[in-house]
TrEMBL record:
<dbReference type="Pfam" id="PF07859">
    <property type="entry name" value="Abhydrolase_3"/>
</dbReference>
<feature type="active site">
    <location>
        <position position="198"/>
    </location>
</feature>
<protein>
    <submittedName>
        <fullName>Carboxylesterase LipF</fullName>
        <ecNumber>3.1.1.1</ecNumber>
    </submittedName>
</protein>
<dbReference type="InterPro" id="IPR033140">
    <property type="entry name" value="Lipase_GDXG_put_SER_AS"/>
</dbReference>
<feature type="domain" description="Alpha/beta hydrolase fold-3">
    <location>
        <begin position="124"/>
        <end position="330"/>
    </location>
</feature>
<comment type="similarity">
    <text>Belongs to the 'GDXG' lipolytic enzyme family.</text>
</comment>
<dbReference type="GO" id="GO:0004806">
    <property type="term" value="F:triacylglycerol lipase activity"/>
</dbReference>
<dbReference type="InterPro" id="IPR013094">
    <property type="entry name" value="AB_hydrolase_3"/>
</dbReference>
<dbReference type="InterPro" id="IPR029058">
    <property type="entry name" value="AB_hydrolase_fold"/>
</dbReference>
<dbReference type="GO" id="GO:0106435">
    <property type="term" value="F:carboxylesterase activity"/>
</dbReference>
<dbReference type="InterPro" id="IPR050300">
    <property type="entry name" value="GDXG_lipolytic_enzyme"/>
</dbReference>
<keyword id="KW-0378">Hydrolase</keyword>
Length: 369
């Protein structure tokens, strides 16, 4: 099944025509048109590499996730994955500076050639994916470095606290602390782009909403294969539920069960924490948003719903759907050409969202080194 069969487009519209329209909108407007409907584009693909990656995920990752979903409260050693990813090679010439936050850590990444002297007036605050259970700066090493290089910006990736020991709200607190760190080091809201993949998309949107209540609006928000709705039932009825090569139907039930258990053990003002649904709190004034998602994953439901809700309140939103890819396929760059192309598009969006340059930001970037 491809995204073309799932996305409502005018009859006879081809992917090439959509790509031409995409280019026109990009250069004519800079952002998606704010006409109360999302700018929606279906990309070309999948390539042979993309198909092979999807098959590999179906044969390996999905069975593991499926088994784990039937025993969600077992202490699975998810942390081993992030530890093992320490062995992944680091891009030659890139720099990584560890940052201490009140309850977590973060890592400030500069790709080769991205230096304070370049005068880039932007920074990306990145929230990694991993179902709130795993992942970090090591697992997302290549993705973050690629974004830094193409966006010509440092990237601050947050090693937030994870389930099941900590609640999702505590992870949001850690991301908020990272945002405060950037503000304390001289970056203004219009120089900061919030970005995240999978569960990180939830954190990015939730953080944007928290900042909105404090009259802070970052330059833009980028969500990659975002998990934006903890409620599992809507996804169970989605057409992609049977073809997702990574997640079984039970996986979303299991995640919510673990998240609810962690929330119950964490009190807020003396009351048990409640699970927060960001899509139930969409309001006008949120940052312009870019969403990239596979056309063959169950989270296409969340992506399309978010795009529609954001557009309805006047937020410029662009939704790009990649047929036949696995969930979070951008992590597979450069092995999958669509992944590399997606990251370049995302980086271009970040650059457009933060076009200004100035000596004030150079000083801010230097203070982060």
């Amino acid at each position: 099944m491809t995204a073309l069969s799932l996305v409502s487009e005018p009859p006879g519209t081809t992917s090439d025509e959509i790509e031409i329209a995409s280019t026109f909108r990009r250069y004519a407007d800079g952002f998606a048109l704010n006409n109360r409907t999302p700018a929606k584009f279906v990309e070309r693909g999948p390539s042979i590499a993309g198909r092979l990656m999807a098959f590999a995920s179906l044969m390996t990752i999905r069975p593991i996730v499926s088994v784990g979903s039937y025993a969600p409260h077992v202490a699975w050693p998810w942390g081993v994955i992030e530890f093992a990813c320490r062995a992944l090679p680091q891009a030659s010439g890139s720099t990584r500076v560890n940052i201490k936050l009140p309850h977590a850590t973060a890592q400030l990444v500069h790709a080769p050639g991205v230096t304070p002297a370049s005068g880039n007036r932007r920074v990306v605050l990145y929230m990694h994916g991993g179902a709130f259970l795993m992942g970090g700066a090591n697992s997302h090493k290549h993705l973050v470095n690629t974004l830094s290089r193409h966006a010509d910006a440092p990237v601050l990736i947050v090693n937030y606290r994870l389930l099941p020991k900590h609640s999702i709200a505590m992870a949001v607190d850690d991301c908020h602390d990272a945002y405060r760190w950037l503000r304390a080091h001289g970056f203004n809201p219009d120089q900061i782009v919030l970005a995240g993949d999978s569960a990180g998309g939830y954190l990015a949107l939730t953080l944007a909403q928290r900042l909105q209540r404090q009259n802070e609006r970052p330059a833009a928000l980028v969500a990659i294969s975002p998990l934006l709705q903890l409620a599992s039932r809507p996804k169970l009825w989605h057409l992609n539920n049977g073809v997702d090569t990574m997640f079984s139907a039970r996986a979303f039930d299991a995640l919510r069960e673990v998240a609810a258990g962690a929330a119950a053990n964490h009190s807020v003002d003396g009351e048990p924490e409640e699970l927060y649904e960001p899509l139930a709190h969409i309001e006008a004034g949120l940052p312009p948003t870019l969403i990239h998602v596979s056309g063959a994953e169950a989270l296409l439901h969340d992506a399309r719903l978010a795009a529609r809700k954001l557009a309805q309140v006047g937020v410029p939103v662009e939704l790009r759907i990649w047929p036949g890819q696995i969930h979070d396929f951008q992590v597979a760059a450069p092995m999958v050409p669509e992944a590399a192309r997606s990251l370049r598009q995302i980086a271009e969006y970040i650059r457009r969202a933060t076009p200004g340059r100035g000596t004030e930001t150079v000083a801010a970037a230097e203070s982060c080194r």
